[in-house]
Design brief:
Layout lengths: L2 H40 L1 H10 L5 H9 L18
Length: 85
């Protein structure tokens, strides 16, 4: 097997390997975010207590608001009431 045929074989396989690696990374990161959010929702009193320790006003409301109805930062546009630079 010469170097040219090896290069050609790698060029055919790499796009498929890249897709599989990216899928694995995305699923792994998504699972981590899910577990983190689930832990905060299942222990809402603990999250509220943490917000209280930071002296955040209305900590219970902010703890619930954090999980319900807040759009991701990437979805906000200039002029929206929730937009912050």
């Amino acid at each position: 097997m010469n170097i040219h045929s090896l290069s050609t074989a790698c060029a055919k396989i790499l796009p498929h390997v890249q897709s599989a690696v990216l899928l694995f990374v995305r699923v792994t990161m998504g699972w981590g975010f899910f577990l983190s959010g689930k832990g905060k929702l299942m222990n809402l009193e603990r999250t509220t207590g943490f917000f209280e320790s930071l002296h955040i006003p209305a900590p219970r409301w902010h703890a619930v608001r954090h999980f319900v109805g807040q759009r991701p930062v990437s979805d906000r546009r200039v002029g929206d009431p929730g937009y912050a630079r």
